[in-house]
Design a protein that fits this description.
The complex is a heterodimer of chains A (about 170) and B (about 650). Chain A has helices at about 5-25, 55-60, 75-90, 105-115, 130, 165-174; strands spanning about 45, 55, 65-70, 95-100, 120-125, 140-145, 150-155. Chain A is α/β, with parallel strands linked by helices and about 170 residues long. Chain A has a single domain, classed as Glutaredoxin (3-Layer(aba) Sandwich), CATH 3.40.30.10. In chain A, helix 3 links the parallel strand 3 and strand 4 (about 95-100). Among the domains of chain B are: about 165-415, no CATH class; about 435-500 and about 610-635, no CATH class; about 500-600.
C-alpha cells in the first residue's frame, strides 16, 4: 500500500527542496573549493629562457605569501590586468606566473609589451596545472601562503575594485 | 482595442474552461445528457485562445509600443521574423503559447477521439480542463501579456540578440507542442484511473498523442541543440545544462511511454507502469518549466527568470502532479495485468527498455537537481558533463545493445534470441572494435564502444524488415526501423565528434596560417559589416586541404538594443565533417582571437536526429492513414460507427 504512494513522497521531497531554493538566501559568489587547501602537486618547466619554472614545492617553501597568476598571451583580459600586476610587483609583492597553452615566443612578446611582473614562470601547455588548481579559464589569480596553502582565489581579470579584498587576504596570509 | 479584445477573449475562454471542468465532473457522476456540451465548449475555448495569441502576434508585428510587453521585448528596427517570434520570446507570450497549445490539443482530442468509452472521455476532458484553469489563472492574474503602457513607449527595448535567430524562432513552439501534447496523455491516464478502464482501448487513444508529442520534442530538442551549436559559439551541441536537461527529461519519459503504451495496446499488459509513465511525462514538462522559469538553477539558457512566477508554477505542479499521484496510489491497486509473458519476449525487451530509460531519467533528474540539494547542505557544487557522460553513456550503450535483439522478438514467448541480421550486426560491431584498436585510434572507452556498436546497430536495426515485402510493410514498423537506424547514425556522430574533434585557439594576425586537423586555414583579415540592427567584425578564413578552398566568415556582432555582443560561428560542411570557426576579441595590431574546430562526422548527429524524427512521423502518418482507411471501409459497407456520445 505504502509503495503505491511512493511517487507522491518523491514529489513532496522535490517540492520541499524547490521551496527552499526559492526562498533561502543563496550565495551569488562561487567559492573556490581549494581555498584553505594545500596547492595540488605540479611541476612546470620554465616557460621562457632565463626564468625558472614553477612547482608546488617552490610555493610550499617560500618566505611569506606569493601571488600566482594564471594567464596566456592569447588572452585579452590578461592584457587588461597586466598593469595592475606590474604595479603590485613594483610594491614588492612576489608574483609567479603560469602560462597556459602558450608558445615561448608569444610569451616573450607579451611580457615585452605589457611588462613582466613574474619571478618564476611555469609553462602549462596542456592546462594541467590550471585544472589542478581549480581554475576554469584565464586569467585567474591565487594567493598562496608560505606553507603552500591556497588562501585566496580570484576568477577573471583583476580590476582596481578587487584590490581591497586582495590586500585583506594578503595581510591575513602573512 | 485589439489588446483589450484579446484580453477579454482570454477571460471568456477561462470561464468556458471552468464550465468544461464542471460538466466533465457531472458527466463522470452519470449526468450523460449535459456532457454533450463538452466537445463544443472545448473547441470554442481553443478558438478564443488562438484568437488572443494571433492578436499578440499582430501587436508584435505592428510593434504597438502602447502594450507593455511589446515595448519591453521588441524594437521597431528588428527584422519581421523576429518581431513575430518576439511574441513568444518572453515569459508572458510563451505562457500564452503554452495555453494555446494546451487548449488546442484539448479541442483536437475532444473533436476527434470517438472510440473511447464515454465516462472515461468525460473524466479525461475534466482533467484537461483542470490543468487549463491553473494556467489561465497564472496567465491572467500574474502574467497578462496585454497590459497597456501609459504613456506608450517611444521605442522598444529589443529582444535578446541571442534569440534573434531562425532556429530559435521555431524551437520554443516546437518544444511546447511536445511538452503540452503530453498533457493529453496525462489527462487520459487520470481519466482512465478514475473510471477504472485502463486497457488496450485507452492505450490506442493515448498512442497518437504520445507519438505526436514525442516527434515534436525530438525535433524541438534537435533545433535547440543545433542553435546552441552555432549560435553560442562554444563548439558543442550538448552541455548538460539544466535547461537542456529540462527538455530532455520529458523526452526520455515520452520515449519510455511510447514503448510501453505499445505493449498496453497490443497485449493489455504493463497497465500500472504505463499510467505512471503517462503521469511522469507531463509532470516532467511542468518540472522543466519550473526549473527554467524560477531561476533556482544557474543556466546559460535562462531567459525569463522570476522567482515569484516560479512559485506560482511550483504551486500548480504540486497540485496537479500531487492530485494525479494520489489518484494513482488510490486506484491503481484495482488494475490487474491480464497477459503474463516470459522474460525473453518482446514484452520483456520493452520492459528492459523502460527500466533503462527510467534509470537514465532518474540520473538526469538527480544530476540536474544535485547542486540545489548540495547547497541546502551548505556546499557549492556544479554537476557537469563528466558526471552525465560517465553515468548516462554506459546505460545508453546497453540500451543500444538491447536494440540488436528486442525489435525482432515475439510477443509473450521469445523464440530465438538473435535474428540473422542481429548476429551479423553483432559480428560487425566486434570487427569494428578490433579495427579501432588496429588503427591505433586514441579513444576513451565510451567513444570506442560507441563507434563499434553504431555500425552493427545500423545493420541489426533493419532486422524487422527481413523477409518482408518492403512495399507491404506496415508503416509503424517502417517508422520504428527508420528511428532505430537514426539512433545508430546519431551514436556514430556523437562518438566521432567526441573522439576525433581537433581544436585550435590562436591569436592570429592577418596573413597567418593555422593548421586544424587536416585543414590549413589562411586568415585573410577582417572587415566591418552591418545588418539591420547590428554591426559586426567579420573575419575571412580560407580553408583548404588539397582540394579547392572553402571560405569561412565568422562574425562578432554588436547589437545596440539591448547592447549585447554575440558571436556568429561560421560553419563549412564537407562530406566527412564540419569546420567551425569563431572570432573573439582583438585588433588589427595585436591580432584576433580565433577558435577553430574540425569536427569529423559531426553531421551524422543531425542526420541521425532527423532520421529518428522521420521514423516517428512515418509511424504516426501510417497509423492515421490506416485508421482513415478502416473508417472508409466501414462507411462503404453501410455500417455506421456508433458515436460514443
Amino acid at each position: 500500500m505504502v509503495r503505491r504512494f511512493l511517487p507522491l513522497l518523491l514529489l513532496l521531497s522535490f517540492v520541499g527542496i524547490a521551496i527552499w531554493a526559492l526562498t533561502a538566501e543563496r550565495e551569488e559568489q562561487v567559492r573556490s573549493k581549494l581555498v584553505g587547501q594545500p596547492v595540488p602537486a605540479f611541476a612546470l618547466e620554465p616557460a621562457i629562457e632565463g626564468k625558472p619554472g614553477l612547482s608546488s614545492a617552490d610555493l610550499a617553501q617560500s618566505e611569506g605569501p606569493r601571488l600566482v597568476n594564471i594567464f596566456a598571451s592569447w588572452c585579452l583580459p590578461c592584457k587588461a590586468e597586466a598593469p595592475l600586476l606590474d604595479a603590485l610587483a613594483g610594491e614588492g609583492v612576489p608574483i609567479d606566473g603560469i602560462a597556459v597553452r602558450d608558445r615561448p615566443s608569444d610569451i616573450l612578446a607579451f611580457l615585452d609589451e605589457h611588462g613582466d611582473p613574474f619571478e618564476r614562470l611555469g609553462n602549462d601547455p596542456r592546462s594541467e596545472a590550471m585544472i589542478a588548481l581549480g581554475a576554469s579559464g584565464v586569467p585567474e589569480t591565487f594567493i598562496v601562503d608560505g606553507r603552500g596553502v591556497i588562501r585566496y582565489h580570484h576568477q577573471g581579470p583583476l580590476m582596481p575594485a578587487d584590490l581591497p579584498a586582495l590586500r585583506a587576504a594578503w595581510e591575513e596570509a602573512r | 482595442m485589439i489588446a483589450e479584445f484579446a484580453h477579454g477573449a482570454l477571460w471568456l475562454a477561462a470561464a468556458l474552461c471552468l464550465m468544461q471542468l464542471g460538466l466533465g465532473v457531472a458527466a463522470l457522476r452519470g449526468e450523460q445528457a449535459i456532457s454533450r456540451a463538452i466537445r463544443p465548449i472545448a473547441a470554442i475555448q481553443a478558438l478564443l485562445v488562438v484568437t488572443a495569441f494571433a492578436a499578440l502576434i499582430w501587436l508584435f508585428w505592428r510593434t504597438d509600443l502602447s502594450v507593455a510587453l511589446v515595448a519591453a521585448n521588441s524594437h521597431s528596427a528588428k527584422p519581421l521574423l523576429y518581431k513575430i517570434a518576439g511574441a513568444w520570446g518572453n515569459h508572458e507570450g510563451s505562457m500564452l503559447l503554452w495555453l494555446t497549445v494546451l487548449t488546442g490539443s484539448g479541442a483536437l482530442f475532444a473533436a476527434f477521439e470517438k472510440r473511447l468509452e464515454a465516462r472515461t472521455m468525460a473524466a479525461s476532458l475534466a482533467a484537461q480542463a483542470a490543468i487549463g484553469i491553473g494556467f489561465f489563472a497564472f496567465l491572467l492574474l500574474s502574467s497578462n501579456p496585454f497590459e497597456r503602457l501609459n504613456p506608450s513607449a517611444v521605442e522598444g527595448k529589443g529582444l535578446n540578440p541571442l534569440l534573434q535567430d531562425p532556429g530559435l524562432a521555431f524551437h520554443p513552439p516546437t518544444l511546447y507542442l511536445g511538452y503540452v501534447g503530453l498533457s493529453v496523455a496525462f489527462s487520459l491516464a487520470v481519466g482512465a484511473m478514475l473510471t477504472g478502464s485502463v486497457g488496450s482501448a485507452l492505450a490506442r487513444a493515448m498512442r497518437p498523442w504520445v507519438l505526436g508529442s514525442w516527434i515534436f520534442l525530438t525535433a524541438g530538442i534537435l533545433a535547440g541543440s543545433y542553435w546552441a551549436y552555432y549560435e553560442l559559439g562554444w563548439g558543442g551541441y550538448w552541455f548538460w545544462d539544466p535547461v537542456e536537461n529540462a527538455s530532455l527529461m520529458p523526452w526520455i519519459a515520452a520515449t519510455a511511454l511510447l514503448h510501453s503504451v505499445g505493449v498496453l495496446a497490443a497485449r493489455n499488459a504493463l497497465k500500472a507502469w504505463t499510467m505512471m509513465l503517462a503521469l511522469i511525462g507531463f509532470s516532467m514538462s511542468m518540472v522543466g518549466t519550473f526549473l527554467v522559469r524560477s531561476g533556482i538553477l544557474t543556466s546559460v539558457h535562462a531567459f525569463a527568470v522570476d522567482p515569484e512566477r516560479g512559485a506560482f508554477i511550483l504551486f500548480l505542479l504540486t497540485f496537479y502532479i500531487g492530485a494525479a499521484l494520489l489518484i494513482f496510489g488510490w486506484k491503481i491497486g484495482h488494475v490487474r495485468d491480464s497477459e503474463p509473458f516470459e522474460p525473453v519476449s518482446r514484452e520483456g525487451a520493452l520492459v528492459a527498455n523502460n527500466l533503462l530509460l527510467s534509470v537514465i531519467l532518474a540520473l538526469v533528474f538527480i544530476g540536474t537537481l544535485y547542486p540545489i540539494l548540495a547547497e541546502a547542505m551548505g556546499e557549492q557544487i556544479s554537476v557537469g558533463p563528466p558526471y552525465f557522460n560517465t553515468v548516462i553513456g554506459p546505460l545508453a550503450l546497453i540500451l543500444a545493445l538491447l536494440l540488436f535483439v528486442g525489435p525482432k522478438l515475439r510477443w509473450r514467448r521469445g523464440g530465438p534470441l538473435f535474428s540473422p541480421l542481429g548476429i551479423a550486426g553483432l559480428l560487425l560491431s566486434a570487427a569494428m572494435l578490433v579495427i579501432t584498436f588496429l588503427l591505433g585510434w586514441n579513444l576513451t572507452i565510451l567513444e570506442r564502444l560507441g563507434l563499434s556498436i553504431a555500425p552493427g546497430l545500423a545493420l541489426a536495426s533493419l532486422a524487422p524488415l527481413w523477409g518482408r515485402n518492403l512495399l507491404r510493410t506496415p508503416a509503424p514498423i517502417t517508422g520504428m526501423v527508420v528511428a532505430h537506424l537514426g539512433l545508430a547514425v546519431l551514436l556514430a556522430g556523437m562518438a566521432a565528434e567526441s573522439g576525433f574533434t581537433k581544436e585550435r585557439l590562436v591569436l592570429a594576425r592577418p596573413g597567418e596560417q593555422i593548421e586544424v586537423g587536416p585543414w590549413t586555414m589562411e586568415f585573410e583579415g577582417t572587415r566591418p559589416v552591418a545588418g539591420p540592427n547590428w554591426t559586426a567584425v567579420e573575419a575571412e578564413l580560407r580553408a583548404s586541404r588539397g582540394s579547392g578552398p572553402v571560405l569561412l566568415k565568422p562574425q562578432s556582432r554588436y547589437f545596440s538594443s539591448p547592447p549585447t555582443q554575440t558571436s556568429e560561428a561560421a560553419l563549412a560542411t564537407d562530406w566527412d565533417g564540419q569546420l567551425y570557426a569563431v572570432i573573439g576579441q582583438g585588433s588589427e595590431s595585436e591580432g584576433w582571437q580565433l577558435r577553430l574546430w574540425w569536427k569529423p562526422l559531426v553531421t551524422l548527429i543531425w542526420l541521425g536526429g532527423f532520421l529518428v524524427t522521420l521514423g516517428g512521423l512515418i509511424a504516426l502518418i501510417g497509423r492515421w492513414w490506416g485508421e482513415w482507411r478502416r473508417r472508409r471501409r466501414l462507411a462503404g459497407s453501410g455500417y455506421r460507427e456508433r458515436r460514443a456520445w
